[in-house]
TrEMBL record:
CDD domains: BSuCS-II_like. PANTHER family: CITRATE SYNTHASE, CITRATE SYNTHASE, PEROXISOMAL. Keywords: Acyltransferase, Transferase, Tricarboxylic acid cycle. It catalyses: oxaloacetate + acetyl-CoA + H2O = citrate + CoA + H(+). This is Citrate synthase. PROSITE patterns: CITRATE_SYNTHASE (PS00480). Transmembrane segments: none annotated. One of its GO terms (molecular function) is citrate synthase activity. Pathway: Carbohydrate metabolism; tricarboxylic acid cycle. The gene is citZ. InterPro entries: 2-MeCitrate/Citrate_synth_II, Citrate_synth-like_lrg_a-sub, Citrate_synth-like_sm_a-sub, Citrate_synthase, Citrate_synthase_AS, Citrate_synthase_bac-typ, Citrate_synthase_sf.
């Protein structure tokens, strides 16, 4: 038995949800470029869950269900008030989602219908939790979800308590489309491993949130912004990046296990970063990002991934840095739950082997003789 570090190149399951073939990403066979330019996040969530684009009435029903389910139990809000104000927002989300199961009468109902309802409920409630915690830690009251608006609109509304402008809603909606699913990424794999034991959907999503939090995965978008802030201005980019590369340190937001010629999602976020920078009159983050890309691609041949330009996009939308990864979670929840439903449909316990590298034939020595 020989291990492959990081399971690189290992095909661990079949899936009909999303594909990465020859550098092209599709959701249910539809190219991500088409979806980013034309679809809404709710259409994409429907596509991931049900395997086809919704008709207008199916979409209306989903929007109504998301609105109906968006409020979280009062106990959840009370619990969020007890979290330390400086808690990591992904840690808070991980705890909150785990607790949410305690208040869902259907939590342990493993029927397909109940699991679909829970996927929609989680999709509706995640933005409410993220926004509520973001306000509570600032000493503000949570804002109740608004009925009849999109996930992107509702999130920005609940975060600020004000009606978001159309450009911001559109930008966030596109970012949600771009992050919704990505084949067998680490957090989706974590979710599938968890539910393959026939554990419940909340356990799967809690595992996934834990995996997404790390800076080698979803946490990279926050790390990118921390880097941009640390660099400070475009004229400092060159010395900072050269220093990092000379020290063999990683530049966050670059590289990918699967894409070697660039992440197809990055160009959309780059365009949004420029447009939002022009609109807000602050192109500093975009200009710095472009210069970083030139240097990292030029010197290392590495291309930006989905996290790189999303940092400047979210900053232009005035979203606090530590909500970037929770926003990723809000979007990827659609993909996680689609994969969980697919896993249940054709389940087998996921239990690989390890190549043993420890001592052989060691003997037990009683504690008195050690
Ligand atoms: N900056 C500098 N060098 C890098 C980077 C980077 N961002 N990424 C990879 N490399 C180098 C490695 O140092 C290594 O060099 P070496 O062979 O000389 O040791 C080589 O490229 C291969 O890198 P690995 O880390 O082995 O590649 P792996 O496939 O395991 O990792 C990963 C992929 C985790 C994305 C990696 O590129 C990375 O750490 N990037 C930065 C973090 C990041 O942006 N994560 C988000 C990924 S997208 C997502 O999850 C949403």
């Amino acid at each position: 038995m020989t291990a492959t570090k990081g399971l690189e190149g290992i095909v661990a399951t079949t899936s009909s949800i999303s594909s990465i073939i020859d550098g092209y990403l599709t959701y249910r066979g539809i190219n991500i470029d088409e979806l980013a330019e034309q679809a809404t996040f709710e259409e994409v969530a429907y596509l991931l869950w049900f395997g086809k684009l919704p008709t207008q009435s199916e979409l209306d029903q989903l929007l109504a269900d998301l609105s109906k389910e968006a409020a979280v139990p009062a106990e959840m809000i009370s619990q969020l008030r007890t979290y330390p104000k400086d808690a990591n927002s992904m840690a808070a989300l991980r705890s909150a989602v785990s607790s949410l199961a305690l208040y869902d009468a259907e939590a342990n109902d493993m029927s397909k219908e109940a699991n679909i309802r829970k996927a929609i409920r989680l999709q509706a409630q995640l933005p409410t939790i993220v926004a509520a915690f973001a306000r509570i830690r600032q000493g503000l009251e949570p804002v109740a979800p608004k009925q009849g608006v999109s996930v992107a609109h509702n999130f920005l509304y609940m975060l600020t308590g004000q009606e978001p402008d159309e450009v911001a809603v559109k930008a966030l909606d596109t970012a949600l489309v771009l992050h919704a699913d990505h084949e067998l990424n680490a957090s989706t794999f974590a979710a599938r491993v968890t539910v393959a034991t026939l554990s419940d959907i909340y356990s799967g999503v809690t595992s996934a949130i834990g995996a997404l939090k790390g800076p080698l995965h979803g946490g990279a978008n926050e790390a990118v912004m921390a880097m941009l802030e640390e660099i400070g201005s475009p004229d400092q980019v060159e010395s900072y990046i050269s220093g990092k590369l000379e020290n063999k340190e990683k530049i966050m937001g670059f590289g990918h296990r699967v894409y070697k010629n660039g992440d197809p999602r990055a160009k959309h976020l780059m365009k949004m970063s420029r447009e939002l920078g022009e609109l807000t009159g602050n192109l500093r983050w975009y200009d710095m990002s472009i210069r970083i890309e030139e240097l990292v691609t030029g010197q290392k041949g590495l291309k930006p991934n989905v996290d790189f330009y999303s940092a400047s996009v979210y900053t232009s939308l005035e979203i606090p840095r530590d909500l970037f990864t929770p926003i990723f979670a809000i979007s990827r929840l659609s993909g996680w739950t689609a994969h969980i439903l697919e896993q249940y449909d054709n389940n087998r316990l996921i239990r690989p082997r390890a190549e043993y590298t420890g001592p052989e034939k060691a003997q037990y020595i009683p504690v008195s003789k050690r």
